[in-house]
Amino acid sequence: MYSEINTKEIKIEEKNWLQEKKVLLARLAEAEETLQAIRNGEIDALVIWGKDGDQIFTLKGAEHPYRLFVEEMNQGAVTLTTEGTILYCNHRFADMLGISLEYIIGNSFFPFVKPDDLPLLKTVLEQSSQECCKVELSLQTRNGSLRSCELALNPILIEHLKMICLVATDLTSYKQVEEQLKASLYEKEALLKEVHHRVKNNLQIISSLLKLQSHSVQEPKTLALFRESQNRVKSMALIHEKLYQTKNLSRIDFAEYIQSLVTHLFRTYRVGLNNVNLTVKAIDVWLSMDQAIPCGLLVNELISNSLKYAFPTIEPPLEKGEIKIVLEVVVKEQNWFSLLVEDNGIGLPLEVDPYHSNSFGMVLVRTLVEQLDGQMEFSNNTPQGVSFKFSFKLQNKR
């Protein structure tokens, strides 16, 4: 008996649940139809039931706040047909052109565009009927002047008709500032080039004065000092020459610089490649002037020493010296580089310690390494050559 009553109750609950489900599905279908009708512009008003009773919301009445918003925009707003006829524009767009609204609405958009930009506009209009587009072009004002503008075009549907919503952002002031900045940058680049050119010329004058002064000196050691000073000045002048010749006025291609510097040193010490073979392996890296000058002076100092002292017994063509310069990455993630300069000459005397030597050359080398905030490794394989390796971190671009 109890089992029969329980079964009846379950059937009644199941029937009620199915009825509620049917009602909910009907309401859901009705809501979906209403939303679709709103999207298609088929409904002018909605009656919403609530605790305060039925309320009527007219969708066309919602145009008023949106119209106020559009009129207060800083950008020009235009509604176009797909053929380019202006159906509506706000006062900001009229102000941009310097033309009254009555002379704009109902006319084609094309006469207000710079003639050279018309093909571009027509192409974008075709695209914007299917998707959102942006384009930068010039609009013609009433007095004939041009306004650089960015146009954003979006397709819209109004009462089953395809339209285009266009928003015009005036870029004229930005373009003027951009041109002023370009002109200012050009002037500064020209000035900086002139500075590099004059510094190079002044360094060359110093080098020439040293050479002229050396003519009055007979003592070989003193003559050698003059030549070394000339080469140091030349290594710095060459950096300013490279900076003057390139578009990048703050950094130089160090691989190219090394090749030019070493070629100059071989010529200065009258060493031919038939006597000493030169190998330069340098990755493509651009050094700032703050790093290029100490690196250049290091190369100058060590190559000069090799050319002067490393190969006293070389007799070509049976024998040939070797000088190697290698610039490579040590730790790529941290921008650490190494500069290796080595030769296969007679090496340094065993009593010479580059880490503590008081000779001018070694003191200069240590000072330059400190300037680079780097590290120095030294290997003396007498009589099989000497090797200097410097590690330093590439300065970030500023």
Write the layout of secondary structure elements.
Elements: H1 2-39, E1 45-50, E2 53-58, H2 63-71, E3 76-81, E4 86-89, H3 91-97, H4 118-128, E5 133-140, E6 146-158, E7 161-170, H5 172-214, H6 220-245, E8 251-253, H7 254-268, E9 276-282, E10 286-288, H8 289-310, E11 321-331, E12 336-343, H9 360-371, E13 375-380, E14 386-393
Structure description:
The strands form four sheets. Strands 4-3-7-6-5 form a five-stranded antiparallel sheet, sandwiched between helices. A five-stranded mixed sheet has the order 9-11-12-14-13, covered by helices on one side. Helix 6 runs antiparallel to helix 7 (254-268). It folds into three domains: 62-170, Beta-Lactamase, CATH 3.30.450.20; 175-249; 250-398, Heat Shock Protein 90 (2-Layer Sandwich). The chain contains nine helices and 14 strands. The chain is α+β, with helices and mostly antiparallel strands and 398 residues long. The protein has helices spanning 2-39, 63-71, 91-97, 118-128, 172-214, 220-245, 254-268, 289-310, 360-371, and strands at residues 45-50, 53-58, 76-81, 86-89, 133-140, 146-158, 161-170, 251-253, 276-282, 286-288, 321-331, 336-343, 375-380, 386-393. The model is unreliable at 1-6 and 54-59 (pLDDT under 50). It is elongated, with a radius of gyration of 40 Å.
